[in-house]
Every structure is written in structure tokens, then in C-alpha cells.
Design brief:
five-stranded antiparallel beta sheet, alpha+beta, 7 helices, about 350 residues, about 25% strand
Length: about 350
């Protein structure tokens, strides 16, 4: 199936299914002689892996990454860097009832209509299990970017409950299972999701990814804008239904005299007085923080019986079993960070190739 690769000079291809023996990725275009270890990659994998709290799926996957090519004596060789992760905790029997039933909100019907065959076990290729390899690729991308660029992510909303930006503290995201930068809101989310989970339901979320230290000049006009590539990157993540850059849709409500980011001359060149455009003008990075935000719909796998049809064209109902995230947006944070890293690594290499 086409469409499994992302990027140009830094190009990521993932493969594998939720209930197959393993998943993997190939990262092509990695410069040679970059120092990296499996432990460096594992650090980021551990931030995404399931079963770390009662608010995520209880599938127990160690997500132990192994580099199998493009690496020698602790350094990249410049050839394709391939990585694999074994799947060890599949429960395919949980999906027997949906072999011929289409789950509402899932890709069951569209896969079947397009290909005439689908792997119903956990969603097969459409499962969020695939995103583990994006995180592995993102770890490599961070090495390409170097220490000067910092990428951080946070959940800003779960269900109807939003963080208070006046209480934003990046240090707090390490102190709760929600990647929440607002200590008080983390407690609200805990109570809210406990209720959602007990009801057999699910909730959506909004995630914000911020890259600091991005140099001026990444991206190019028209079809290779860095913000258009970021939007595409985030939209490829499972269950994402909306993306905005900077203040995004909020700018539609502002008058022109306040919507644009004013500038003044600083000691090191032009300085912006605000960042409503999210660090991008004309598709090119401004040197400010690069800010992207995306909305994740509620997990479609819930315990409530839902109306659907089967592959024979009959009306029926379905009740999904298995282990699922009550809010899949929580584990989307490290995935969003990884996609930001991959986009930036790709554009950094492209910028150097064109502009030196």
C-alpha cells in the first residue's frame, strides 16, 4: 500500500501492524557520523509506550527498540537506518466479534471498501500502534537537529476542560500522567477521566507542540511551506481532526491591527513583539517558537453498544472489546513531538542543500 513514507531529504517509512509479530521503520537521509545509541532512542519510546497509567490502554508493550542497519560503532553510517520493535502483548481474540462488523469511527469500512481485505485484529495498519515507530524516527531527527532546538509538547484540553494559560508551567508535565502544564487542571482531568472510564466511554483532547531555537529561514514559499508540512504531519496521526498554527482559528476573530506580529529592532536583529503566527511567515520560520496545535477526537473503541453494518450489508450492532485508551490524545504528545522533529530535520537538511 502506498503512502507509508514521510519527508524528502529526511525520509521516514514505517511498516507493520498492531497484531503482527513486529513493527519497524526505515529512516533514509540521516547524515553520517551522528553519535546515537539504542538507549538514546529508548528514552523517547518509553514516554509513549502503553500501560503506564490507568488513563491509557493496559496493553503491556515494552517497546524495546533495536537498530538493525545504518549504524556502526555507535554512529550513523549515512545509509538507511532501520529499527524494529517486537509486539509481545497482542490479544487478537478480543477482535473476533468485529471480523465482519464495521466499528463506528474506525477505518474498518474504508479499508474494506478500498482494498477488499482488512486485518481486523486491533485495526491492523490503521492502529495507533504504528506511531511507536514515528517516535523512534523522531529520536533520530532530534539528533540531526542537535541540542540547540528544543521540542516540547503538552495537553491543553481534555473533553471540555482547558488549561489556564496563566498557570502554564512546563515543569508540571513531568509530574502527572496527562502531560498537563497546569497543576490544578491535572486534578480536574483525573476526576473527569475516571468517570469517563467507568462509564465505558472516551474523551477527546487538544495537544500543543512547541519547538524553540528554530533558526530563521526553514521552509519555502507555496507548496513546501514549513507550516503546511507541519499540518500534514500532525494530520497523519491517528484520530487527529484539526490542526492550527499559532493562534490559528482564533485569528479569524481579531482585527488586522492586532492580528499581525509587530516588530522592533533588537540587539541581534529584528525582534517580534508577539507570536500569533506561530513562528512562521510566508511558509518560512521566523526564528520564534514554532507552535502547532492539534485536536484528537474521542477514542472510537468504547464499551457502549453502537449501531453499524456488517460486510454482508446487514444492519447490526457492535460492542467493542479489548484494551483501549479512554483518551487517546494523552499518548499523542510524544508522537506530535516526533513529527515536529521529523519535519524540522527534513527542512533543515533541505535548507542547507539549497542555501548552504
Amino acid at each position: 500500500m502506498a503512502g507509508n513514507s514521510f519527508g524528502h531529504l529526511f525520509r521516514v517509512t514505517t511498516w507493520g501492524e498492531s497484531h503482527g509479530p513486529e513493527i519497524g521503520c526505515v529512516v533514509d537521509g540521516v547524515p553520517p557520523r551522528i553519535a546515537i545509541t539504542e538507549a538514546d532512542i529508548q528514552h523517547w519510546m518509553d514516554r509513549r509506550k502503553p500501560g503506564q497509567s490507568r488513563f491509557t490502554t493496559q496493553r503491556k508493550e515494552p517497546d524495546q527498540v533495536q537498530i538493525v542497519s545504518g549504524w556502526f560503532e555507535g554512529h550513523t553510517t549515512g545509509t538507511p537506518l532501520a529499527m524494529v520493535v517486537k509486539n509481545v502483548d497482542q490479544r487478537s481474540k478480543d477482535y473476533g466479534d468485529i471480523a465482519v462488523k464495521y466499528r463506528p469511527g474506525h477505518a474498518d469500512y474504508t479499508y474494506d471498501a478500498k482494498y477488499g481485505i482488512r486485518d481486523h485484529r486491533g485495526g491492523g495498519r490503521s492502529s495507533a500502534r504504528e506511531t511507536a515507530m514515528r517516535v523512534a524516527a523522531g529520536a533520530v531527527a532530534r539528533k540531526v537537529l542537535g541540542d540547540g532546538i528544543t521540542i516540547r509538547g503538552a495537553v491543553t484540553q481534555i473533553g471540555p476542560h482547558c488549561v489556564d494559560r496563566e498557570k502554564w508551567d512546563w515543569a508540571q508535565i513531568e509530574n502527572n500522567p496527562f502531560w498537563c502544564p497546569d497543576q490544578e487542571m491535572a486534578g480536574t482531568w483525573e476526576s473527569f477521566l475516571d468517570g469517563v472510564r467507568k462509564q465505558g466511554s472516551s474523551a477527546g483532547a487538544v495537544i500543543e507542540i512547541v519547538a524553540s531555537g528554530v533558526p530563521v529561514g526553514l521552509g519555502s514559499p507555496i507548496y513546501d511551506k514549513i507550516d503546511s508540512d507541519l499540518a500534514r504531519a500532525m494530520m497523519t496521526i491517528n484520530a487527529v481532526k484539526g490542526v492550527e498554527i499559532g493562534d490559528g482559528f482564533g485569528l479569524a476573530a481579531e482585527p488586522g491591527e492586532t492580528a499581525a506580529d509587530e516588530m522592533t529592532m533588537g540587539n541581534d536583529g529584528p525582534r517580534f513583539l508577539s507570536n500569533k503566527s506561530g513562528g512562521v511567515l510566508g511558509g518560512i520560520s521566523t526564528g520564534q517558537d514554532l507552535v502547532v496545535r492539534f485536536a484528537v477526537k474521542p477514542t472510537s473503541s468504547i464499551l457502549h453498544e453502537r449501531q453499524t453494518v456488517d460486510s454482508d450489508g446487514n444492519d447490526t450492532t457492535v460492542q467493542v472489546k479489548g484494551r483501549h485508551d479512554p483518551c487517546v490524545g494523552i499518548r499523542a504528545v510524544p508522537v506530535g513531538e516526533a513529527m515536529m522533529a521529523c519535519v524540522l530535520a527534513d527542512h533543515l537538511l533541505r535548507h542547507k542543500a539549497q542555501c548552504g
